[in-house]
UniProtKB/TrEMBL annotation:
Sample GO molecular function, one term: aldehyde dehydrogenase (NAD+) activity
Matches recorded under PANTHER family: ALDEHYDE DEHYDROGENASE-RELATED
Protein name stated in the entry: Aldehyde dehydrogenase (NAD+)
InterPro entries in alphabetical order: Ald_DH/histidinol_DH, Ald_DH_C, Ald_DH_CS_CYS, Ald_DH_CS_GLU, Ald_DH_N, Aldehyde_DH_dom
Record-stated family: Belongs to the aldehyde dehydrogenase family.
Superkingdom of the source species: Bacteria
Entry keyword set: Metal-binding, NADP, Oxidation, Oxidoreductase, Potassium
Organism: Rhizobium esperanzae
Amino acid sequence: MTIYQNLIAGEWVGSNATKNINPSDTNEVVGLYADGSADDTRNAIAAAKAAFPAWSRSGIWERHVILKKTGDEIMARKDELGALLAREEGKTLPEATGEVIRASQIFEFFAGEALRLAGEVIPSVRPNIGVEITREALGVIGIITPWNFPIAIPAWKIAPALCYGNTIVFKPAELVPACSWAIVDILNRAGLPKGVLNLVMGKGSVVGQAMLESPDVHGITFTGSTGTGRRVAAASIEHNRKFQLEMGGKNPMVVLDDADLNVAVEAAANSGFFSTGQRCTASSRLIVTEGIHDKFVAALTDKLKTLVVDNALKAGTHIGPVVDERQLKTDTDYIEIGKSEGAKLAFGGEVISRDTPGFYLQPTLFTEATNQMRISREEIFGPVVSVIRAKDYDEALAIANDTPFGLSAGIATTSLKHATHFKRNSEAGMVMVNLPTAGVDFHVPFGGRKGSSYGPREQGKYAAEFYTTVKTAYTLA
Ligand code: ADP
């Protein structure tokens, strides 16, 4: 088998490799991917540092063309890349293809943004003096990504970093190197100068750690667990480095008595269980008022019975496997914790087998949960959802906000008053009315509050906040 290598200073390198395994069929090796070392990482950082002066002053048309070509190629290859994504991560083929399309759109968006770079010219308070306010590239950006969106998250970090003139050392998650390799290959062929984008696949404790320790990395953008996020923060403070963290959630969806039942059930099923519940914006707490509680639970349970859990590549599969054995163990451990805490297992809870050996788990619904239980407070990151009763809207809102996280929050209601109040009073970065808590477009700001996020928003024009630094320049006329 060929080894998909790391890209360092414009050269494909690396002979140590690890297997990328398909979670829908653990007999299948998706490919062999390079396992980078701390030295590889240091070389990549040096290459990015050397490439920075020229790239940060490159023309906006050059950046536009490279980003546009990349978006176009990703779109042209959406079916092939969608299948690759489904094979390495386990989300269903339609979900995976949708994610590939989103990655393409992100590159198209930032191809446009490259042509719209602008500053401000304002008068000084002193006569005959002008002030220019411009945005400049930050420098070498370290990009550390998780396994749950193998192409969209790399795209929404790489595209703005390049658009604003930064150079990159990119470390994808160990479990899903294939899509990352594919987009780096596309960008490289699209004409990026050597060293502008360096790919170092490998372990977080080796490659990621070497990135954290380098004084030559000027910004780190990280999406992953809270524990690793805190390490990124501590190391970055040490180096006086800018950093941005996305670390998950425990997202509530409030369902009020006046909700349209179908809308509420569809939104809850989608955001609780699609992508196997492995989205940081997944709804994992359904907070349901008394008058609709039993009807909602019955309808959601009926819906869950219709969802097919199977091989991600099979037509008709609604929910693919859990990403790996370790995550499956986390999920089943939390199911046991939920039972022992006194929540009622209303549906699912079993690991199941299919024609191909994989990590298949039934969608799992707990009822009679309280917001103090561990299953309601800790992020599980699987298809495990709890229903919490609330007596009215005010109590539901209080429960929704009573969490260490603050990424996304939803409400199902036909009341304008409650929808409006919830949008204003939710302590989450993103709020959805009558929609799943997951599913934020590619051109709008993405990010949360409290324990979910740190630093400026990602995506859309707000991405400039992280990937640039502002300069204020005076001229005496
Ligand atoms: P998960 O538990 O979901 O895998 P992690 O936070 O461990 O979440 O992983 C997210 C990303 O962080 C991955 O790319 C991983 O390799 C990387 N990572 C893990 N440990 C470290 C570390 N010590 N320093 C830098 N990056 C790390």
